[in-house]
Amino acid sequence: VLLKMHSVGICGSDVHYWMNGRIGHFVLKQPMVLGHEASGRVVKVGSAVTHLK
After folding, report:
1. Which residues, other chains included, contact 23 with Cβ-Cβ below 8 Å and sequence gap of 6+?
2. Element (H, E) at 52
C-alpha cells in the first residue's frame, strides 16, 4: 500500500526523546524522525490487497 501522507503528530514520548535523547534504556540514535501518529490517503495498492482502495 502506498500512502500520501496528510499529517503526522507527535506525542509525549517524542517530546521526551527530543528533550532528553532517551527514554529509559532506549537511547535515541540519530537521525530519527519523530512522529508516529499519522493520517494519509491510499493512492496505490498491490494486487494482493483486497481490503483497501
Report:
1. 13, 16, 17
2. none
pLDDT band at 28 (very low <50, low <70, confident <90, very high): confident
How far is residue 35's CA from residue 37's CA, in Å, rounded to a whole number?
6
Judge if pTM exceeds 0.70. no
pLDDT band at 46 (very low <50, low <70, confident <90, very high): very high
**What's phi and psi for 51, nearest 5 deg?**
-110, 5
DSSP β-bridge partners for residue 37? 9
Give the start-to-end residue ranges of the domains of the chain.
Answer: 2-42
CA distances from residue 42 to 17, 21, 38 in whole angstroms, order as listed: 30, 33, 13
The runs of H, that is alpha helices, within 1-53 are 12-20
